[in-house]
Amino acid sequence: MARWSQQELRVHVPPAELDSDAPRVEAEEARRLISVLRIEGGERVHLFDGTGRSRKAVLRRGGRHLFCEPAGPVMTAPAPRAVITLAFGQVKKPALEFILQKGTELGVHRFQPIECARSVAAWEEDRAGRKRERWQELCLHAARQCERDDTPELRAPVPLAGWLDTPRAACFAAIERSQAPRLDMDALPSLAGEVGLLTGPEGGFEPAEMERILAAGCAPVSLGSRILRAETAAVVLAALVLYGLQAFSPEKNP
Ligand code: SAM
After folding, report:
1. In terms of domains, do 89 and 208 share one?
2. N or C: which end of the chain has fewer CB within 10 A?
3. Are 55 and 133 in the same domain?
């Protein structure tokens, strides 16, 4: 018979706070809990620090501040068997945010924007720090929503050639309008180590880039006969691979 688990209130605290005797909830998180969720104190919660560690606790309220009384030891999530990097040709902000949010929910471990010949969006270096912080925050919100204790890392863009030169256990590149085969779902559960997933920008890869991708040993895969938007392709490829890896099973890609 099916068993249902109870939804728990999830609260983010910085890594150093998780280990303390009275973990303090940061101002913004406290505001969300007090004004949106109407926390009064005394609630049992699941604390997580975004690095894969968590702890059960009881919330204590002092005005607009929230502290926690630990109710258990610090737990560390097991390291994933396969570490998934989702690399995608740079896209504009709404598409990037879509990829970050959905990719986090699916279980991607790292996001890597790639500078391609046909990339439409440039990473504005001057404001990149602040923006990256905001996008990391978006990943944190998605992690809390989907009950992940770790938050994926968003890396600064790198040129395609540089990314392809990095050795990894496996790499899959989504190539449209080609004879590329579909993903071999039966082979996915045995994947381990660093796994790269690559999708192109809105304009697609240039022929020279495609040759480079194949020469680097990336396995070309088709996502079907329709031409998907760049952000859809990135999320679909991640969903298929993570599903194949059984990341959705109770063990969550251990
Ligand atoms: N401008 C290209 C064209 O019209 O041929 C389409 C590029 S598509 C919008 C952006 C990226 O999504 C592609 O580079 C590819 O990585 C991926 N993609 C989209 N549809 C796909 C499909 N059916 N199979 C594999 N990859 C696909």
Report:
1. yes
2. N
3. no
Please report the pLDDT score of residue 224 as a whole number.
Answer: 95
**187 and 209 inside one domain:** yes
Q: With residue 170 as reference, give the H or E element that holds it.
A: strand 170-174
Among 86, 198, 227, residue to substitute to test ligand 1 (most atoms within 8 Å of Cβ): 227
The predicted model scores a pTM of 0.92
Expressed in angstroms and rounded, the spacing between residue 176 Cα and the centre of ligand 1 is 5
Give the pLDDT of residue 131: 81
**CA pair distance 179, 69, nearest whole angstrom:** 58
Mean residue pLDDT of the chain comes to: 91
Low-confidence ranges of the chain (pLDDT < 50): 1
Q: Which of 76, 107, 131 is the last residue before a domain boundary?
A: 76
Q: What are phi and psi of 143, to 5 degrees?
A: -65, -45
The percent of the chain in helix, strand and coil, each rounded to the nearest 5, is 35, 25, 40
Determine whether the shortest distance from the Cβ of 119 to ligand 1 is under 6 A: no
